[in-house]
Amino acid sequence: MKLITFISEENQTAAEQYVQSVYQSVIKRNPHESEFHQAVKEILDSLTPVFVKHPKYMKSGVLERIVEPERVVSFRVPWVDDNGNVHVNRGFRAQFNSALGPYKGGIRFHPSVNASIIKFLGFEQIFKNSLTGQPIGGGKGGSDFDPKGKSDNEIMRFTQSFMTELYKYIGPDADIPAGDIGVGAREIGFMFGQYKRIRGGHEAGVLTGKGIVYGGSLTRTEATGYGCVYFVNEMLKFKGLSFQDSTVVISGSGNVSIYAIEKAQQLGAKVIACSDSNGYIHDPNGINLETVKLLKEVERQRISEYVKHHPQATYTEGCQNIWSIPCDIALPCATQNEIDEESAKTLVANGVKAIGEGANMPSTLEAIEVFLNNEVLFGPAKAANAGGVAVSALEMAQNSMRLSWTFEEVDAKLHSIMKNIYESSVLAAEEYGYSGNLVVGANIAGFIKVADAMMLQGIV
Ligand code: NDP
Question: The Glutamate/phenylalanine/leucine/valine/L-tryptophan dehydrogenase C-terminal domain covers which part of the protein (predicted)?
Answer without folding.
Answer: 217-458
